[in-house]
Specification:
124 residues, 11 strands, mainly beta, seven-stranded mixed sheet, four-stranded antiparallel sheet, single chain
């Protein structure tokens, strides 16, 4: 069983930056699976933000490309999301996600494990 615990969500002004963290436990081979960040705004479906596979290959949703950076520290079993130049439309509950293997998708239905989420609020 994989356990994911997010942290780092805050209220910031537009143009600001935040770094989200996701501490992983319960299954030591998380290094061999794709990890991702998703987000869900009120009244909207959960959407994929970024993925990173075991080789460090990353993929981003077009809405965040160039502003967000996904990374991981295997020694610390931690996934990160650096978010720069934040916009009000980035306001959402951000979820850490782990897939069942090293195949990455920006589709919520393909996720095997979810964290509880951390709130990011961006004011204009």
């Amino acid at each position: 069983q994989v356990q994911l615990v997010e942290s780092g969500g805050e209220s910031v002004q537009a143009g600001g930056s935040l770094r989200l963290s996701c501490a992983q436990s319960g299954y030591t081979s998380n290094q061999d699976r794709c990890m991702a960040w998703f987000r869900q705004a009120p009244g909207k479906e959960r959407e994929g933000v970024a993925t990173i596979d075991s080789h460090g290959t990353t993929f981003y949703a077009s809405s965040v490309k160039g502003r967000f950076t996904i990374s991981k520290d295997n020694a610390k079993n931690t996934l990160y999301l650096q978010m720069n130049n934040l916009k009000p439309e980035d306001t959402a509950l951000y979820y850490c996600a782990a897939f069942g293997d090293n195949l990455c998708f920006l589709m919520a239905r393909m996720v095997r494990y979810w964290g509880q989420g951390t709130q990011v609020s961006v004011s204009s």
